[in-house]
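We close this part of the discussion by returning to an individual protein. Part of our work consisted of pairing the sequence of a single chain with a tokenised description of its backbone. No coordinates are needed to read the tokens, only the vocabulary itself. The amino acid sequence and the backbone structure tokens for this protein are reproduced below:
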Amino acid sequence: MQLEILSDYLAEVETTVRSLKECHVEKYEEEMLSPQRVNLRIRIRFLKGHLLELNEAVIFEAGTLRHLGYRYHFQDKNNQLIFRYDNTPHFPNLDGFPHHKHLVHEVVSSARPLISEVIEEAKNIVSAQP
């Protein structure tokens, strides 16, 4: 059952990534470390030059999936940060610590979004730019 739940999660992510248009998947790596744990590393390059990197470590524990660590980084064609979600514990004064979102000029509290939500956010930004 554990492996099935992790496999279903990975299939959902893969379906989301495969549905993308106007981009190239530079890297798609699923690393099953055990029947309870998987690491996921994805690099998506949009045709306009933007880069979206999705990295997470997921474990099946107590009947549910839990994200041990994640980093969802999006940058423009000039390698400038647009946003990054992560749970690195370096902003202890933010609500929702350790979860947060880096923006160009600030860091704000943010719950961990779903990968599909991050992809949608990145797509919307890319499509809004000329």
Observations:
- The first strand starts at residue 23 and ends at 34.
- The chain has one domain: 2-128.
- The two ends are 46 Å apart (CA to CA).
